[in-house]
Amino acid sequence: MKLTKEELNVLMVALDHMQEYLDDLSLEPMSEIFDLDSKYKAYESLRCKLIGAFSGSAPQLKKNKMRKQEQELLNQIMNRQSSQKVFLNFEYEGAWITDRFLDETGRFEVEPLEYYGETYINALKYKLNTILER
Question: Which residues of 83-107 are buried (b: 16+ CB within 10 A; e: fewer)?
Fold first, then answer.
């Protein structure tokens, strides 16, 4: 039986949730009764097998995960501020970015996640933390 890329993607998302669950479980008192070591090993084994099944689609997985993270952060920011527009300023390769939809020269439109990558995600995290600290 061969899985489609969409099915594999769904399984990877489910694995992400399993990792979050195991991480939460490890914080519980008496977590040793859950035999977390074997569950983490099974998680890692399955994750490696699925990534291998994607045969070279690991960059796409990372991109999908970052896209999901971007949406979650934007939603949390918008839910906690009065404006539905997210103003974001951050540094990227020595340039101060004031409009995430433009490149560092301010002349060309870009898709922030694809262009700025992790820097953009970190700026969103910082913005959310700043809002939460108020």
Answer: eeeeebebebeeeebeebeeebeee
Give the CA distances from residue 21 to residues 26, 37, 62, in Å, rounded to whole numbers and listed in that order. Answer: 9, 14, 20
The reply to whether 1 and 50 lie within a common domain is: yes
67 plus 131 within the same structural domain: yes
Gyration radius of the chain over CA positions: 19
Same structural domain for residues 77 and 36?
A: no
pTM over 0.70: no
- The pLDDT tens digits of the residues spanning 84-133 come to 788 899 999 999 999 999 999 999 999 999 999 999 999 999 999 988 88
